[in-house]
Automatic annotation (TrEMBL):
It comes from the Eukaryota. This is MICA1 monooxygenase. GO terms for molecular function: monooxygenase activity. It comes from Dromaius novaehollandiae (Emu). Its main location: membrane. The lineage of its organism: Eukaryota, Metazoa, Chordata, Craniata, Vertebrata. InterPro entries: bMERB_dom, F-actin_Monoox_Mical. Residues 88-115 form a coiled coil. The keyword Membrane applies. It holds the Pfam family bMERB_dom. SMART domains: DUF3585. It is found in: Membrane. Keywords: Coiled coil, Membrane, Monooxygenase, Oxidoreductase.
Amino acid sequence: YPTWKRTWLRQTREAQMKRFCKAQAIQRRLEEIEVTFQEVEKQGIKLEKFLREEGGAQGDLRTQWMNQLLHVVQKKNSLVSEESDLMIAVQELKLEEQQCQLDQQLRRYMHKEEALKTPEERAAEREILAQLLDVVNKRNTLIHIQEEKRLSEL
């Protein structure tokens, strides 16, 4: 292989490993969120029972339970928001991987001289380019979604 191709293959493998490690980290965090969410939900149920059953409890105790319940609700909302962000990141990783594969396919066709290409190869090249543009547009949409979410949280 020429030097440029070895370098390109090495960079491609490194990028693929980076995406794989990122996907694993996201998966671990999603599992942690699920466990935490269940714990928080149990806390919320317990607090709601206290508030319903102890309707005539002291004002200070009732206020303390209400504050704890509000904290639990905020924690749940925070977890849901983080989970949503991670799901967007998962989609982005999938699209990034797809873009990398399409890019590799397109490079194979582009390295062949135009005069030597068959009509089928030209059609396949155009199809891959169309798919690549579609993936780029989907990634752009995800970025817009993330930006809108970030702005709405501010």
